[in-house]
Design brief:
By secondary structure, the chain is of the alpha/beta class. The chain folds into 2 domains: about 60 residues, no CATH class; about 150 residues, Zincin-like (2-Layer Sandwich). Helix content is about 35%, strand content about 20%. A 4-stranded mixed beta sheet has the order 1-2-4-3. Strands 5-6-8-7 form a 4-stranded mixed beta sheet, with helices on one face. Strands 9-11-10 form a 3-stranded mixed beta sheet, covered by helices on one side. The longest helix is centred in the middle third of the chain and has 28 residues.
């Protein structure tokens, strides 16, 4: 009657890839019609989306059968960027060469293709991250006000996220969250994400009405912005080390 006490603890699903153990996250989606698999942008986990009727074991077997593909995806991830003179930091989609001089002011300044920053080298990484996040908040707030005005909606609460799974979200209460890493992407890409979430204030789904609203709000090409994120989004997750 106490056999359950002797059972080994249940292990979370994982797959061995290139000497690393990657957790497998399985999500059942009502709208899914087939199984899809991708690697997290930072390579931290394998994500599988399945239809409601699919067994979890099938998803796990699928991951095991695609180990070679996952290994190639893992190998393609960008390496951590060492923060020092000559390092490249992307800002508004443009590469900037980091120029550090401890004797100059700490606040980063963009000038002539360089990101110039002073202060101690030991605190360079956290200061640069704070600056990027501050720039993200300022620009996203402007984007949000712009698209809310176009949609004739009051400006909701804004929060920056570090989400690993999505670039933006709109909560039931109207709060909008935008991934701060989009400050490193081209402006049109960031703005498309903000416009997407504002459209959810009017249509809390992905219906034809939602897509028509988004097309009306966003002045650029949603297709081109999505294509850029699909091709380059993973590069925005480069850890600064």
């Amino acid at each position: 009657m106490l056999d359950w006490l002797l059972r080994p603890p249940r292990q979370d699903p994982a797959v061995e890839i290139a000497g690393r153990t990657l957790p497998i996250v399985v999500r059942r989606l009502d709208r899914a019609r087939r199984m899809t698999m991708r690697l997290a942008p930072d390579g931290s986990e394998v994500r599988i989306s399945i239809p409601r009727w699919t067994r979890t074991d099938e998803a796990l077997s699928f991951a095991q059968s695609r180990q070679d593909w996952l290994a190639r995806q893992l190998a393609a991830l960008p390496a951590p960027t060492p923060l020092g003179p000559g390092a490249v930091v992307h800002f508004h989609g443009e590469p900037l060469v980091l120029a550090h001089d401890a004797a100059t002011p700490r606040k980063p300044v963009v000038l002539a293709g360089e990101l110039r920053v002073g202060g101690p080298a030991a605190s360079l990484a956290p200061r640069l991250l704070r600056w990027l996040q501050g720039e993200a908040r300022a620009h996203v707030a402007q984007d949000l006000a712009h698209y809310c005005a176009r949609a004739d909606q009051p400006c909701p609460a804004l929060s920056l996220s570090s989400a690993q799974r999505r670039w933006g979200s709109c909560a039931q209460d109207g709060t909008i969250r935008i991934n701060w890493r989009l400050i490193m992407a081209p402006d049109a890409v960031r703005r498309s994400v903000v416009a997407h979430e504002v459209a959810h204030l009017l249509h809390f789904d992905h219906s034809p009405a939602f897509h028509h609203c988004l097309k009306t709000l966003f002045e650029g090409s949603v297709h081109e912005a999505n294509r850029w994120l699909k091709a380059n989004g993973r590069s925005l997750y480069v850890p600064f080390g």
